[in-house]
Amino acid sequence: MSISSINYSSSILGAQIRNINQQLTDLSTQLSTGKLSQNYAGMGTNEGFAIAGRAQLSNIAGYTDTITNVNVSINLANTALQSLTKIRNTVQTGSANTAQDLNVNGQTIAQNTAAAQFGSMVGVLNTQTGSRYLFSGTAVNTQSVADAGDIINGTTTQAGFKTVMAERQAADLGANGMGRLVQTQPTPSSVQVSEDVAGSPFGLKIKAVSSTLTGATVSGPSGSPVSFSVDLNGVNPNNGDKLSIQFTLPDGTTEQIDLTASTATPTPLGSFAIDASTPVNPNNTATNLNAALNTAITKLANTSLVAASAVVAGDNFFNTASSAIGAPVNNQAAPPAPVTGATALSGASPSDSISPGFVAGDTITVNGTTLTFVASGATGNQLNVTDSIQTLLSKIDQITGTSKPSTVHGGSITINTDDAASLNITTSNTGALSSLGFSATPVTATQPPLRVGSSPASSATTLVNGSATTVKWYLGNDGPGSPRSTATARVDDAVTVQYGAQANEDAIRRQLQAIAVFGTFSTSPTGQYSGGQVSALSLRVTQALTQQPGQQRIEDIQTDIAMAQNTMKDATTRQTQAKAQLQGIIDQAESASPDQVASEILALQNALQASYQVTSNLAQLSLVKFL
Fold first, then answer.
1. Which of 94, 141, 253, 545 reaches 20 to 30 Å from 346, CA-CA?
2. In the listed set 415, 446, 477, which residue is the last one of a domain according to the structure?
3. Does residue 266 share a domain with residue 372?
């Protein structure tokens, strides 16, 4: 019998020592790195939670980067919008100033300021963050607004606003400078005034006439084109008797001329002389009335009408939002007056209603949705035949989902839509549709600039699509939907914010338009009516820059993007809390406690020392010692 020598490497004791050494190595690595293992296999059963936590942390890091970038864009947009507000206040303060001293260019200091502020506003609207234009909607790589010089002065191939304004002024004044009105004396005792062409969008429109002239006969306004006449019938009016005529201007405002019969010498301003010859000749009084009326109409045309023309030219050039604009129409009142939102869709004459009107059974189909007229008790997609134009427009707006309500202004109906390509309105009663200012063909939205339709402008009778010949001031995206939805970002697992903006939004466009009108208009420094023109224009610009109820404001845009910032702030707060919780889960699953590791190392070292001692003793064992 023989006793084999002890082989350390193959013994059970040796394997145990190697295992202890490996544990010591692993624990030393844990102590130095703070991690349970350098690979997933050694992490234990909780590593699945840690892996999921790391994925969520990665998502949060991505959201954090997105929020940071979006905040940069929003802060820049908000700064730009604040600048627009300051520009508005500066120009409005100047336009409200009554000083009308004209320089050699026929402008006031306030107008010069407005021209400079227009350039500043264009620069603000072309603000970029990186290569992204903030006010271009989805067209982030496209300049938002054309260069200020091109907008005002045009290019070599396209007309700018200055040309459009000059054409419109010539068309509104007419060849005789009387606002497209024709004044005659049909008989020695009478005076007649008529519009030059029925349905023309230009010039003064006769709205109403009233008289206290003793013995006189007043006829109209009526007819096509509309006219009125005053016949003294061979009788002198009494001192203080008055003739009043109301006119509607192209911008929808109303002006009134009052002429008082007077025996005073000299004849006071705003009066006409009663004949005092011997014998008295009332026909001379009619001649004096004719002359005074001519003077008053000419002054009105060359002051308020010129200012209104400039304002409407601004609308023709800048207001290219998606809309269908009807021709100005009158109701069937006595005398007829421009339709308003309160005008009924049918009614007996004379009344504030359209003629011909809608009857029960008629239909209007808007983008495939049919509205049906009933005698009474309308519900859902029905309208009472006695409902107002505004009720009809509200129904249409509900169907189109427009962000800008449709309006009635100056007898003209504007149907707004966010998507020009989609609007389609047809009816079974084309006559009633015509009474609303729209032709028998389907009503569709258009968005071109409007130009005077023929040359010479002073005899033109139409406005036409000027897209091919006119500078396009807004160059960004103009598609359907809210401008805010043109820029979106996901900032949390189930949270998306919208922060887009467009330079053609109503609040921005109206401000840009008003400032352009004020800064571009000029007149003769020494003209007879120059002061009156600038005064009337200043009043209109001041009003245009004053916020009206129901209109979008620059502050509304700021509020929208501030809401996006608040949403991101809330998301950041939640994500900060989630990060702490997720990191705790990961640390619990993957981290090694230094105290526990040190304790385990000490225990293993003691065990290893004991193993070495046993191994040493066994290595010295002999047969003699064994026996």
1. 253
2. 446
3. no
Rounded Cα distance, 155 and 170, in Å: 22
Burial of 352 per CB tally in 10 Å (0-12, 13-18, 19+) = middle
525 upstream amide cis, omega within 30 of 0: no
Q: Look at the pTM and tell me if it is higher than 0.85.
A: no
Structure token digits, residue 511: 């401000």
Judge whether 361 and 373 are in contact, CB under 8 Å. yes
C-alpha to C-alpha distance for 320 and 509, rounded to whole angstroms: 9
Residue with tokens 């349970």: 36
Contact in structure between 344 and 357 (CB atoms under 8 Å):
yes
The verdict on residue 139 lying in a domain is: no
The DSSP code for 275 is P
- Phi/psi of residue 293, nearest 5 degrees: -65, -40
Name the least confident of 36-50, 210-224, 327-341, 353-367: 36-50
**Three-state SS letters, 489-533:** EEEECCEEEECCCECCCHHHHHHHHHHHHHHHCCCCCCCCCHHHH
- Tell me the two tokens of residue 240: 């203080």
The residue-averaged pLDDT of 334-355 equals: 91
From residue 88, alpha-carbon distances to 64, 78, 92, 508, 514 in Å are: 36, 15, 6, 10, 9
Which of 503, 563, 88 has its CA nearest to residue 321?
A: 503
Q: List Cα–Cα distances, 170 to 54, 275, 606, in angstroms.
A: 72, 37, 109
| pLDDT band, very low/low/confident/very high, at 1 (cuts 50, 70, 90) | very low
Pairs from 524-527 (Cβ < 8 Å, separation ≥ 24)? 524/106, 525/102, 525/103, 525/104, 525/105, 525/106, 527/106
pLDDT by residue (tens digit) across 209-255? 999 999 999 999 998 899 999 999 999 999 999 999 999 999 989 99
Whole-angstrom Cα distance, residue 547 to residue 545? 6
* Residue after which a domain boundary falls, among 446, 479, 499: 446
User: Distance between CA atoms of 16 and 264, rounded to whole angstroms?
Assistant: 133
Q: Residue 30: what pLDDT? A: 52
For 376, the domain range is: 322-446
Q: How confident is the model at residue 28 (pLDDT cuts 50, 70, 90)?
A: low
β-pairing, 363-366 with 323-325? unpaired
